[in-house]
Amino acid sequence: QPACEYKPGLEGVPVAQSSISYVDGKEGILKYRGINIEELATKSTFLETAFLLIWGRLPSKQELDDFQEDINNHRRIKYHIRDMMKCFPESGHPMDALQTSAAALGLFYSRRALDKEEYIRDAVVRILAKIPTMVAAFSQMRRGNDSVKPNDDLNYSANFLYMLTEKEPEPLEARIFDVCLMLHAEHTMNASTFSAMVTASTLTDPYAVVASAVGTLAGPLHGGANEEVLTMLEEIGSIENVRPYIEDCIENKKKIMGFGHRVYKVKDPRARILQQLAERLFELTGHDEYYDIALEVERVVAEKLGHKGIYANVDFYSGLVYRKLGIKPDLFTPMFAISRVAGWLAHWREQLAVNRIFRPTQIYVGQKDGVYVPIEERS
Ligand code: CMC
Questions:
Q1: pLDDT digits over 22-75, tens only?
Q2: Does ligand 1 lie within 6 Å of residue 315's CB atom?
Q3: For this structure, is 315 an active site residue?
Q4: Is 307 designated active site?
Q5: Is the distance from the beta carbon of residue 30 to the nearest atom of ligand 1 less than 6 Å?
Q6: Which CATH number fits domain 19-220+329-352: 3.30.70.260, 2.30.300.10, 2.40.128.10, 1.10.580.10?
Q7: So what CATH class is 225-324?
Q8: Of these residues, 205, 261, 288, 347, which one is catalytic?
Q9: ipTM confidence
Q10: Atom 29 of ligand 1 has which residue's CA nearest to it?
């Protein structure tokens, strides 16, 4: 007999004890290692936050400098991997390209010295360094261009935008992108993190862990809602059309993209920060008419569905920000992966310390007395 009741989707079933992140869905609080996301978003950087998530403490100045320098030194990808990526179909989805390239890293780098902290650090550095390069490379290659080499004078986020768009971003654009990476870096237990942990629990290498998490994130029920928010705003098209559009969705039980969350029953704290970032970005790059539509959507949804605890989630404003930064909609989920890899690696490292292979059970509901019928006697 199973030890507990079957819960589809493991809803409400704890699968780990973790000290990496904490969410209070009623108060709208998200903390990484005990530090409020708002504080990190104003004071930290993505790489410092990744260090915090993975090693459980803020780095010293020297540790952070060394970490950043190591990552800068590992941003290039091998010719073999670039050659392999050139053979990918240009119509392929960037998430599939990323999953394949992430798995390919495992072919090139030493495997499974998982008990050694140097190995863990080396893998963390390589993965954080190379994932953005691979995303940007595929984005260039699918348009028939060569990949753009990392620019050693630019920091992590500025360099990524440079490799993607071939122009150096304004400091504010790079900073805003860096904050977006911080906001998406970790979010307690979720499908891709769980997938990473199941893969990690077999003690396979970290490249396989990341590749399986990327594959999980790629599905429309997980990453990808921000792309759909943009499509929705375009469909709405004008402020006057917001109310009838939302009323129609509610009447026909159609989900409004970028709203609602399994955990948050108030506005997602990440949406609040992203909205402020969007406003700062539009001051620099010019007004965005879709932002006015988005504000009206938020007003009408709060009026109609606020009583059910349905408010804007992290995906509602991120698409508007990414688009202004010159990022194509089918790259929004890879942006999520570039960032969330920090959380996956944190859970990988946390789990290695207490590892037990995931081997749940099932309730058999099939037949128990089947007979083998020879093929010529089957109807
Ligand atoms: N628009 C309209 N109604 C909604 C929405 C929405 N976006 N979200 C939930 N509801 C209603 C739903 O119709 C249901 O109503 P009723 O009880 O009358 O049948 C009730 O709220 C509960 O909804 P649910 O789908 O059972 O809630 P859930 O916790 O299973 O789903 C969710 C959470 C995020 C999948 C869902 O809110 C949704 O599909 N939102 C739109 C897609 C989206 O924005 N996804 C990004 C999630 S945030 C990223 C992340 O953290 O991974």
A1: 999 999 999 999 999 999 999 999 999 999 999 999 999 999 999 999 999 999
A2: yes
A3: yes
A4: no
A5: no
A6: 1.10.580.10
A7: mainly alpha
A8: 261
A9: 0.95
A10: 262
